[in-house]
Amino acid sequence: MMSNEDEIKNEDLMDRLISAPSDTIEKLYDELGSSMVSSAGGVIGAAAGGVAGGPMGGVIGSVVGKKMAGKIISNDGPFIAENGPSAVGKYPHLHRVGELIFVSGIGPRSPDTNEIIGGPIKDKDGSPLDYDIRAQTRSVIENIQLILEEYGSSLDKVVDVYSMLIDMERDFKGYNEVYAEYFSEIMPSRTTCAVTALPTPIAVELKVIAKA
What whole-number distance in Å separates Cα of residue 24 and Cα of residue 30? Predict the structure, then answer.
């Protein structure tokens, strides 16, 4: 159990870490390199927490980790999530410009297995297959959530959604129901369009704009 003196020392350490000048963080960024991106925040935060130790160390580690991650990913440019679904072309999961994050079109493929959650809309020969639009929509939104959170943002910062459905008549109702589960309180603007096809045999794809 920490003494009052230890608690005061740890609180002082936390205050000093929180108020660390930006150039100190930027120097660390230059030394680590851009490849560290958000993961570096967690590493440095854990190290800072280890210095303090105890319950207070966890708090300090969390604060410093978030501070460091925020500094590292504050630059404009592309970001590829380590845990996001693989891209089907040469594009990032998202691209930041100022205070806005532009997420690329995201489908329902599993980041772990690359399978289409809810099933593909057709087989390799092009024959139609039955699929679950609700499962596909849920997977799309959770993929977007995963990407945003790895970057340091979140689903509740989404301000605009552009949705693409390959069969509006069949799928709009199910897609709309699942969409409401995630966005009925967030209330971003939304556009839903019918398209003739998507690059892979999926029924739905979403791209969003979020606040950084």
Answer: 10
**171 to each of 4, 143, 195, 212, how far by Cα in Å?**
61, 19, 12, 31
Sequence letter at residue 179: Y
Domain 78-211: which topology?
60s Ribosomal Protein L30; Chain: A; (3.30.1330)
Range 86-96 burial, b when 16+ CB lie within 10 A, else e: eeeeeebbbeb
Q: What gap in Å lies between CA 106 and CA 163, rounded to an integer?
A: 10
Q: Which residue type, as a one-letter code, is found at position 205? A: E
Question: For residues 101 and 212, what is the distance between their CA atoms, to the nearest angstrom?
Answer: 6
Q: pLDDT tens per residue, the chain (212 residues)?
A: 555 665 555 556 555 555 555 455 555 545 554 444 444 445 545 554 555 455 545 554 554 454 445 444 557 999 999 999 999 999 999 999 999 999 999 999 999 999 999 999 999 999 999 999 999 999 999 999 999 999 999 999 999 999 999 999 999 999 999 999 999 999 999 999 999 999 999 999 999 999 99
Closest CA to 104 of 147, 73, 159, 155: 147
| Among candidate residues 177, 179, 189, 170, the one with its CA nearest the CA of residue 144 | 179
Segments making up each domain of the chain, as ranges: 4-74, 78-211
Residue 151: CB atoms within 10 A of its CB come to: 23
pTM of the full structure: 0.68
Taking CA atoms, 20 is separated from 24, 26, 51, 96, in Å, by 7, 11, 16, 25
